[in-house]
Fold these 2 entries.
Entry 1:
Amino acid sequence: MFATPGSVPQGTPVGALLGNAMSDPDPVARKGIAVTGLTVVAGGRWQFNTGSGWTDFSAVSVNNALLLRDSDQIRFLAATSVGSPATGTATISYRGWDQSTGTFGSQANLSNATGGSTAFSVAQETASISVLSSNRSPVLVPSGTQSLPSIAEDTTAPRGTSVRELLGNTASDVDTGTQIGIGVSALGGNGNWQFSLDQGTTWQSFPALSGSNVLPLRGFDQVRFVPAPDFNGTSTIDYFAWDGFLGQAGSVISRLAAVPDGHAASFSSVSDRARITVTAVNDAPTIAAGVNSWLSPIAPNTAFSGSGGTLVSNLLGQADSDPDVGALRGIAVTGTTGSGTWWFQNNGSWRSGSTSDNFAWLLKSTDRVQFVPAANMTGNATITFRAWDQTTGPEIQGTWANLATGDKVGGTTAYSAQRQVGRIFVGAVGELPSLISMRRLDPVQASGGSVRFNATFSADVTNVTPNDFRLSTTGTARGVIASISGQGSSYVIVVNSLAGNGTLGLALNDAHDIRNGIGAAVRLANPPVNETYNLSAIVTLTRTQASISEAGGISNVTATLPAVQTTPVTVSLSFTGSATLNVDYSLTATQIIIPAGQTTGSVTVTALQDTLDEA
């Protein structure tokens, strides 16, 4: 440590002063010191801060030691320079304190009270600080190879690296006692650089840094990089060496800030760059929530075919995704239902068997699955599976995997945490109902609280619930599917709680569970029409003239929407007020129509002079 006459240092945490010098066999022991001695340079004084501001030390000794926790701070204030300033070395002596007895900020008698089962160490340590007449700049020798320990992709709370570790032996200062830090000047990488001023207890994100601005950090402060999700690669941190003469740790300062006469800059003239490598890890694939896959329907009594079945890639469809570039696709079959036999093919060979989370059958995207129904079976059969990216573990396609515990799926594993259900319908294709129309029953209306839709199927269906449909919106429009009523092939869906401006559309959910007349869930062959409902937008009216008192005067009235609409918007107009003597007005229209796809429309009000006596 060092100080210069008249400077006001930020202070050093007791924990940083102790470093790794203090140890305690008790598993939950805390750290602190008992200050037993102080020496000063003429005119200077030692201070401590326990959280309520800085206080001068009173006289201390072994019989009258001041107790401080590891989170408390100390500093030495050198005398203000008048003429030739006093220089030299000030010291502070202390013993370790485990805080088991005594109170921070108070004094304790350590006579015959050290070692053994006491709260104080037998050994005593002395730290010193040099008081210099003037400051000289630190020197940084860029190595271009400084680095932080690598971290894994998706790490959310990495261990910090101290500034002292980051610098290594690349920085020096001719001023005796200088504890060199850094002034961070630039940050790079996809993620969040953070710093800690309390040895990693709390972390703060770096502010934006530009130009000559830097954020100073002391040697015992720490930095870390928290990568963005799924990012791997290299991130960088640029910095200048800092000697602590000007600036406060954690507060942005210009490294070109003026310094007092007789002193040199507090930052080095050149910078260095350190790097951190974020190593790639596997990301588990995912499956969109509530998605069902449909296999092509088959007729009753369909026989096994060596060239038949459905490709795994088609079974997955567009439901699976993987953030890893170039990830492979596959499935782990965890369950099947249906009166018949499910067959699985890999590398040209077919086999069948029961599946579960304990015995999940692995298939790559080019493999096939096939259902062979029992004699005269009609209805549905299902296959349940997780996505598999073909990484990690001894498993390969065509073998079994045990996915019975939660740590085997999601995260960095090869398997999705979500399951997907594939369905196949066994029966005559003509038995498959389809959604033939979806139309809005209610007209577009201003401030409408609800709207009804009618869904018509090609045949009778059952088990129709609000969960079988979904809303799509544009703008700020929103609503809730409240209820469904009806029977047979016709149903009415009520959407209420309408609010906002924009459009609402109603469509069939991919994960619907609508059933046909025999009670089996079926694939609805045709997609619905996505009918839209336009909520009333807020219209703003403006005019070019507030009054038109002379014959031939005009005022243009313009209606403006905040966003374009998909259907025309009609704004009805009414005018109040009085005309002056012998002056009337005419309108080009009594309403403004804003065409679909546009945001404005207008009418013109023109003053007319007539011969009527309007007194």
Entry 2:
Amino acid sequence: MAISLALTCCHHGVRQHTADPSPAAAPAAAASPREQTDVTLTTTAGHPLEDGAAYGVGIVVVADFSRPVADRAAAQRRLTVTTSPRVAGAWDWVDDHTAHWRPQRYYAPNTTVLVDARISGVDLGGGNYGRADAVASFRIGASHVSVADDRTHMIAVSKNGKLVRTIPTSMGMRGSETVNGRTIVFRTPPGVYTVLDKADPIVMDSSTFGLPVHSRLGYRRTVRWATRLSEDGIFVHENDASGWAQGHSNVTHGCLNVNQDNGKWFYAFSVPGDVVEVRHTEGPPLTVRNNGDWTVPWKTWLAGSAQ
């Protein structure tokens, strides 16, 4: 079984959807067969969208339901995204709990966004009804688009369309490792990522993706200036130990290694929703579940809508 885990530099918890505890017993006359369903508006990292916050031009809105939604069309009719200036965008259902919304193209800087989930009392199918509405408003900051090209081993960082920094990098090395019947591939997946979040410092542990710390390629170390790009743990982070390879060759487990100065600069520069395109690598394609929403062609994205 081949598993593309190139990648994971540290452990991230998996969000689980569990049913709400049963309500306390009520008099028969007040009993109701309805199950109450909540919705949370988040980023693809699972962090709540912050009112008034500035996000990158690739930010994706997530409507995360606490119970399975049997009638996706009914739910989607109550989910609206209003932007100024107006942009074309659509919802795509990742599974029966989760819908993602993104524009057809990256937002323009200074766009304002209002997300409204008016599900209170709405029949969502399967005996589930919306418990309460949710709303979030935010704005889009400057356009930060970075392109990591495996042919040049460089990251070209642009702000509002102008190149502001070129950063030597080393990405996922060739080869794989088989552990307990699972093949771990180290190549960095090509595709369009967005910044999820950041941590400084962070402990990166290979055992979190199945590679024992004391194995031939295992590791556990503290890393500075880590900007996370994927759910399974691809980061842009400092690693002076691979400085000899940065700008020349690939030697990592899937992350984008840069030197300390560049790592610190990129960390300070980045906000959630900034775009990072990885090109010409030989890794497996980036998936939506791994923060690859922008890798999906627009026609395919529209096919995931319930309307």
